[in-house]
Amino acid sequence: MPSAKLIKALEKKGFFLDFPSYKSIDEIIIEILKEDDPRLNLSLPIFLIDHLDYNKIASKLNSKQKYEFIKAILISAKICKIENIENNLKGIIKKNNLKADFSKSEFGSYYNSFKESGLNQSKSEQKAIEKQSKLRLNLDMNKSLKILFSPAKIKIMEKIFNHEKLTNTELKYYYRSISNINRAVLSPDMQDYLRIIEITRKEVLKVE
What we know:
Layout: H1 4-12, H2 25-34, H3 38-41, H4 44-48, H5 54-58, H6 63-83, H7 89-96, H8 104-148, H9 151-161, H10 168-186, H11 188-205
């Protein structure tokens, strides 16, 4: 399998590899624990706050991995208590009599990683929302432009928007056929007038 470093370099150049996805949270947790990497283990609370099958996961682990799993559950339960997050970890701990030791600094590392992951996820979601909003705005704007302007006029305005130089013919066409429409659209009086029409149209145009 390609290294993470190589995958990142490829993605920067626009080349994306297809990888099989996990069928469940349980599979992700098992995969993380089998890596035996303390850095990866810090991600476990993100998944442990969801519903999981403790016995199924534990049966796939060796003794060392199982201990790390139990420790991560206890840490995750404490994080959930602090953050007031609903979970089923308390029941799992009680039912299976889970016990493991972890230091204050170790808990801090897990907790900081959990908080940072939450912030990163929020940022990603916000970026996705902003991207969708921008796409919708562009679609609405393009629709409005097509109502007011011909394709030739839109092409000239796009050149101006992108700071591209106009030919003399395009410049003359802009002042003769486009500029006056723009001034009319930007006129505050015109905007107020059209706003009043839109507000009152339902009452005026309703069928008796």
